[in-house]
Structures are given as structure tokens and as C-alpha cells.
Amino acid sequence: MELKVATRSSGGTAIVAVSGEIDLYTAPQLQAEFARLISTSPQRVVIDMSEVEFCDSTGVNVLLSALKRLRERGGDLEVAAPRSAVRKILQVTGLDSVFTVHDAVPDDLLTTEHKG
After folding, report:
1. Which among 55, 72, 82, 96 is least buried, having the fewest CB atoms inside 10 angstroms?
2. C-alpha angle 38-60-77 in degrees, rounded to nearest 5
């Protein structure tokens, strides 16, 4: 299963839309996109996980690493629209209290996207 990553930015906010599976084989692709994105110093990054079917511990580690690097620069990483399998991983590991988790991509970002 391949991983597709699309990033769009507006102001100090970026939305990273991910689809497919985040695992040992595809996580480096997501990690590379976060590294590129973090170098632009966004204040807020929202990862849209509505199309992510599976995320293993490697994927979770990529998210945690990105969160750490963003917070070091005064930013934050939020998780939006995780499917039930991904949401369960976040809950079981306690990461649902580490990340801000939204049921959907926040409306203010959708509005920004259309103004784009």
C-alpha cells in the first residue's frame, strides 16, 4: 500500500493530508515531508488522517518526532479526522492527551483553504 502526502499552507498554518498506510515502509516519506515543512517554521500543522487506513508504531513515532520539533520552534501539531483504528491507537497509547485531536479538519482551516 502506498502513502500519499499532500501539504498546503496558508499564513502560519499547514495542513498535511495523508492517505494510505503509515508503516515501517512508508513512514520515511511522511518524515521527509515533516522535515521539509518544519524548516519553513509553521506555527500550526494539522495532519488530516481521514484517509489513513493503518498506522503502526513507526508512524506514531514520526508524529511524535514532528510534534517535538514543532514545539521546540513554538509550533504545534494537531491530528484531524482519524479513523477508528488510528483513534484507538492514540487512545491506547495515551497520545490522545498529547496531541490535540479533532473529529474533522477544523472549519477555520477549510475556510482559509477556499480563500487560498
Report:
1. 72
2. 35
